Amino acid sequence: MDPKECLSKSELVDRLAKINDEKQVLEDRLKPLETQLNQSNQVEISIKVVKEVMTNFEKVIKETVTTEQKKHLLHLLISKITIIDRKKIDSIQIQLNNSLVDRFTLKGEEKSSDDDFSSPYLVHFNIKE
Q1: Which residue windows are coiled coil (predicted)?
Q2: Which helix (H) or strand (E) segment is 47 a member of?
């Protein structure tokens, strides 16, 4: 390496300090944005709606004839399955959206105005033995 291309220790310390300062400024700008983003995306879902969807889903899947139809229904509902030790289910995330809720709730029953599933809503279940 050419000695002319090397930085002196003081130059390196100065550069590192500037980079750390820039990093701190960016982190400070990021914190309120993350807070705002998290607050705007939080929608509370009633346990009644989740229970009704899951109950009706169970009925429909039992009545479904072909394996392909069952697979399709499971793909509509399940977002992610986490497995530990290559054989044990750790958790399951289901994804609720307007289409799924409309399909698996009673048509005549009123939804509350708070139940807006325009973007997917995840429900996470940890499986315990």
Answers
A1: 9-36
A2: helix 47-63
